[in-house]
Amino acid sequence: MATITSKISAPAGLFGRTGSSASGERRVVRKRRLGPGKAIPFGIGLGPAILIAVWVIGSAAGTIDPETLPAPWTVAQTAGDLIADGRLQSNLLTSLQRAVIGLVLGVSIGLVLALISGLSRIGEAVVDGPVQIKRSIPTLALIPLFIVWFGIGEEMKLVVITTSVLIPVYINTHAHLRSVDARHVELAETVGLSRWGFVRRIALPGSLPGFFTGLRLAVTISWLALVVVEQVNATSGIGYLMTQARTYGQIDVIVVGLVIYGLLGLFGDIAVRTIERRALSWRQTLGD
């Protein structure tokens, strides 16, 4: 039996080469992992850097018509002029206030509704239907109704952002609450956990991945909704600045606004991902 066992070796093509030491021990060279590999430092900036490089090269070579898309240096000069006269800072501050307030309200409401619906069948029967109805109705279709209800002031803009943001937070958090492993529920019942103990120790930690996925979507959607509402009779904000530029044919100012929206969305996503990695440090994924 010992002779048969000693002749059995792992296939070289599957585990790599094997070697024998003087004591007859065998060691296996570990093959490279099948995942995407280690994270690239500052890799999230690689894609935007390539886009900017293509923009610079195309503008310098004359491939990109400056009447269609101004050159990067023209846009940078326009941004400097807007900063010098104070217009960019004041409008950016207004947009940030609207987006942050709407985001905080939407995330809070979406999370509360997800907990009510995800932890109670009665709550699900009451809450899930209206949320799914709102999910299927585009935000643009609701703006005329919101204008009638709330006017054209700040209240209407915050309502549009809030109702847009709460949907992804609700959907993803609710889905993860409902997908908690039944064995964990049985274990909680076995050890005698209370309802609140089950929620605090099992349900909430289990729903965190879904919550952060919804939060990342919510950050992006808050800026998308902001672009829409700031072009509805607004008197301040980046969207208002872009609307005025469109009226006067100032394409460079429009591009400045688009770049700012893009950077805010990118940095917002980076911030959420950083918080997510720290909050879910216990979970090993392919992205680690």
Write up this protein:
Belongs to the binding-protein-dependent transport system permease family. Keywords: Cell membrane, Membrane, Transmembrane, Transmembrane helix, Transport. It is found in: Cell membrane. It comes from Nocardia jiangsuensis. It is a multi-pass membrane protein. The protein has a single domain, classed as MetI-like (MetI-like fold). The N terminus is likely disordered. Helix 5 crosses helix 11. 72% of the residues lie in helices and 2% in strands. By secondary structure, it is mainly alpha-helical.
Topology readout:
Layout: H1 2-6, H2 12-15, E1 18-20, E2 26-28, H3 46-61, H4 72-84, H5 87-119, H6 121-136, H7 139-150, H8 154-178, H9 182-190, H10 195-229, H11 238-247, H12 251-279
Antiparallel strand pairs: 1-2
Helix pairs in contact: 4-12, 5-6, 5-8, 5-10, 5-11, 6-8, 7-8, 8-10, 10-12, 11-12
Structural domain count: 1
Given the structure, what is the number of helices?
Answer: 12
Strands across the major sheet, in which order? 1-2
Strand content: under 5%
| SSE run | HHEEHHHHHHHHHH
CATH topology call: MetI-like fold
Major sheet characteristics: 2 strands, antiparallel
Q: Could you estimate the helical fraction of the residues in percent?
A: over 70%
Identify the CATH architecture. Answer: Orthogonal Bundle
Q: Which residues form runs of ≥5 with pLDDT under 50?
A: 1-25
**Classification by helices and strands:** mainly alpha
Number of strands: 2
Q: What's the rounded overall pLDDT mean?
A: 79
> What is the terminal-to-terminal distance?
44 Å
CATH superfamily: MetI-like
Radius of gyration: 27 Å
The level-1 CATH class: Mainly Alpha
Shape call: globular
